[in-house]
Design goal:
The protein is 48% helix and 24% strand. The protein is of the alpha+beta class.
Amino acid sequence: MLNHRFLPLSLVMAATLAACAMTPPNNAALEEARRDYAAAQSNMEVVRLAPDEMTRAGDALNKANDAWTKGEDSAKVDQLAYVAKQRVAIAQATSRQKTAEAASAVDAPAREPAAADDSKAKGILVLGSKPPCEIAIDGSPTGLHTPQTEIKLTPGRHKVTLVNSEFGIKESFNVDIKLDAPEKMIKDYSDRLPNP
């Protein structure tokens, strides 16, 4: 009779152990992508200014979660988590870029035009890209990354090069800097991100 009492308890313990055995082990890359997404989701500026990017980040994270839940290969889960993390970074960069553009638009009327004969007069370049890139101007690295709201340059034509080695991005283009208005240049390379 004593053995019959412990039978239900034994069955519960066996079911619990079986359920634990079926749960895939934690994946560090996926956990990091989840944290990054949660942080971006809790930032109202990112949610408000980059809703499309956040939707793509959420979709990518869902794919990574599904792969993990199904017990797929950890390399595949890592890759999907990496894509989700990059999508979150793009959403955050887009938010910063749009904030910088808005600040530049507000500040532009307040700037006094520089005198034409001032040899040290500078124009302004507002530069952004998705994903963020290193900036070189006229062949020289600046040590800056996009987005930038106020790169001061002498008036005239300048060659700008954007580089993101991680995604194989290296593009050069010309900008014409004027004293009377900021030159704005936004480049979207998000199509070069790996597809999940």
